[in-house]
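[step 3/7] inverse_fold.run input=structure_tokens len=476
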């Protein structure tokens, strides 16, 4: 059927009882093309007339320019189906978009060697499909290919280069899948709502992970991100039960809400290659206890750590200038935040409802003024030389409040010094009847590799202290 460009409206049921091999002809980018796509009809651009055939086994097909077979539809009733390698002595090379869409009887499919492409939405809504065997020859599977195949448990991928948009969306029975080293990108929502998927290993060929790729994977406890990945999209791991995330040095940006409401996440290490994180990146990660921020992070956007009720401390790197709206709001257990003098803007509600917070910051810095203006306890620090000697003013209310062995770190990224092997560095000060002890926790740099150590550790010969924190302990 040919539909001219002048047609701009067609009823949804206009072709409801028509043969499944119906072809709609029309102009490229016309309403007819859009209608055909939305209603799972075969579309062909005017001027490219095609002949359609039906095999005895129920395959509706056409031939391409190379006289090879392209399967358009399947009209048979087999529950276990092996697609033939040839039809009419011609090689099968492609399965067209929506070829098996809404097939409610198909349980297993074997795709023959020689097929290189599986079209968009090909097996979408096949709700009893459990197993698909895809050969090495297939390099492309279209968007939505297995969309809402809720019974799919087993699928083999060998030479695929792209996991398309919503390819495995809501495959709620899929527990595991192996991604081959040929995959370079994981599309938006590729595995969204795969509720039984427990683990995913992303191969080191992947460079980007699309928005919401693993969103609502409610059983996903482990995800390995390789060094090849450069970007993590928006809401990639939204509402997944990951317990730890370590970002490789290749990643430069983390999308909005990337770890939104990951309630099992306890530790997050953001590599120094990351320069930007979208807002709400760790929003309401209620179990998050420890975060190591990138030393090259440019800003902390609004609501980045809002509602992280278990987060006790945060060290802001010296590259930041701004803490945005609600950045740490409702971090109820936070007792410590180090804010460097580079920060010149902090939103009024950045630390709202952080009831026990003590801000540590250099003397005369914007952060100290902010603490005073907002009634937040503070420790004002002044560094005097590069060997670690310092003078500091500690708010008396802070000292009076701290009991027993409560610890508050004080951080500096300015100090550079050489210490002897086995050196233990400790400074004590007495305030009234309380003894304040400062001990170094070093970051040792040897052969350009950084490693964290404790105060009791032995530094490598000639190790240079490029960063340190002071651990403050109050004893009565």
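[step 3/7] decode complete -> sequence:
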């Amino acid at each position: 059927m040919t539909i001219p460009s002048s047609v701009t409206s067609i009823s949804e049921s206009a072709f409801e009882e028509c043969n499944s091999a119906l072809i709609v002809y029309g102009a490229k980018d016309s309403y007819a093309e859009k209608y055909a796509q939305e209603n799972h009809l075969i579309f062909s651009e005017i001027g490219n007339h095609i002949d359609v055939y039906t095999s005895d086994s129920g395959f509706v097909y056409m031939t391409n320019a190379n006289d090879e077979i392209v399967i358009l539809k399947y009209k048979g009733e087999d529950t276990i189906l092996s697609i033939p390698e040839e039809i009419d002595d011609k090689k099968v090379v492609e399965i067209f978009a929506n070829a098996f869409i809404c097939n409610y009887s198909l349980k297993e499919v074997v795709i023959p060697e020689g097929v290189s492409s599986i079209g968009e939405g090909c097996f979408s809504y096949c709700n009893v499909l459990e197993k698909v065997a895809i050969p090495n020859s297939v390099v492309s599977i279209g968007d939505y290919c297995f969309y809402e195949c809720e019974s799919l448990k087993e699928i083999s991928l060998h030479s695929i280069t792209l996991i398309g948009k919503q390819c495995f969306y809501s495959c709620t029975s899929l527990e595991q899948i192996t991604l081959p080293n040929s995959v370079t990108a994981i599309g938006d929502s590729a595995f969204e709502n795969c509720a039984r998927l427990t683990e995913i290993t992303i191969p080191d060929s992947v460079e980007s992970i699309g928005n919401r790729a693993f969103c609502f994977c409610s059983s996903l406890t482990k995800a390995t991100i390789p060094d090849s990945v450069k970007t993590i999209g928006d809401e990639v791991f939204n509402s997944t039960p990951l317990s730890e995330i370590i970002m490789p040095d290749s990643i430069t940006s983390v999308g909005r809400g990337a770890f939104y409401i990951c309630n099992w996440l306890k530790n997050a290490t953001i590599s120094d290659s990351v320069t930007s994180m979208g807002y709400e990146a760790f929003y309401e990660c209620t179990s998050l206890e420890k975060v190591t921020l990138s030393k090259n992070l440019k800003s902390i956007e609004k609501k980045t750590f809002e509602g992280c009720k278990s987060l006790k401390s945060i060290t802001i790197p010296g590259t930041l200038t701004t803490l945005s709206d609600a950045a740490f709001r409702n971090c109820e257990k936070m007792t410590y935040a180090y804010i460097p003098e580079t920060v010149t803007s902090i939103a009024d509600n950045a630390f709202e409802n952080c009831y026990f917070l003590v801000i540590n910051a250099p003397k005369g810095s914007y952060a100290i003024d902010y603490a005073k203006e907002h009634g937040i306890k503070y420790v004002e620090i002044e560094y005097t030389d590069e060997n670690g000697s310092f003078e500091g003013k500690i708010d008396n209310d802070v000292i009076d409040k701290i009991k027993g062995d409560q610890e508050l770190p004080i951080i500096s990224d300015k100090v550079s010094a050489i210490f002897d092997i086995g050196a233990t560095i400790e400074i004590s000060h007495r305030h009234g009847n309380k003894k304040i002890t400062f001990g170094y926790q070093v970051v040792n740099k040897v052969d350009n590799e950084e490693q964290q150590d404790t105060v009791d550790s032995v530094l490598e010969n000639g190790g240079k202290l490029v960063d340190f924190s002071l651990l403050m302990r109050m004893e009565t």
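[step 4/7] annotate
The two ends are 90 Å apart (CA to CA).
The first helix runs from residue 31 to 38.
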